[in-house]
Amino acid sequence: MNAHPDVDALVLDWQRGDEPGQVEFVVTDSYAEDLLSLLAERNVSAARRPTAVRGSGVDAFALVTAMAGNPAAWVAIGVAVKAFFDRHKGKRIQVGEKGISEAANYSAADIERIVRALSKADADDVGEDG
């Protein structure tokens, strides 16, 4: 099994959107729904753009657009982003030749998703070699 250290890398970047009060988040695709749910919990209007961007390695990135029409909405976005980072703080995974040898601060669903991604990456590697 080849180790793919970037299989679940967390990336969150933001940029000003095209419209006043709009902010765009570039986030690792596998975390986009998590960010959207945290924004929705705080009544922030947000949507995922339909196109994904392929990054280096195996990660794809999603674009999430949020609207903040007033100062309270900007505060809500800040609180959602802080909650997002708090939720994922301290996550660590170590993958060796025999699979996952150590994982910290991941839910069982996260581990299952990572195992599927690693299995798919290995199958893709075997297909290229074979």
Any overview of this molecule?
With 130 residues, the chain is α+β, with helices and mostly antiparallel strands. The protein has a single domain, classed as Gyrase A, domain 2 (2-Layer Sandwich), CATH 3.30.1360. It is built from 3 helices and 6 strands; from the N terminus they run E-E-H-E-E-H-E-E-H. It has a 4-stranded antiparallel beta sheet with strand order 1-2-4-3, with helices on one face. Strands 5-6 form a two-stranded antiparallel ribbon. The radius of gyration is 17 Å and the shape is elongated. The relative contact order is 0.19. The N terminus is likely disordered.
Main sheet: strand order: 1-2-4-3
Distance between the termini: 15 Å
Q: How many E-type strands?
A: 6
Q: What fold name stands as the CATH topology?
A: Gyrase A, domain 2
Q: How large is the count of helical segments?
A: 3
Helix content: 25-40%
Structure classification: alpha+beta
Instruction: Please tell me how large the radius of gyration is.
Output: 17 Å
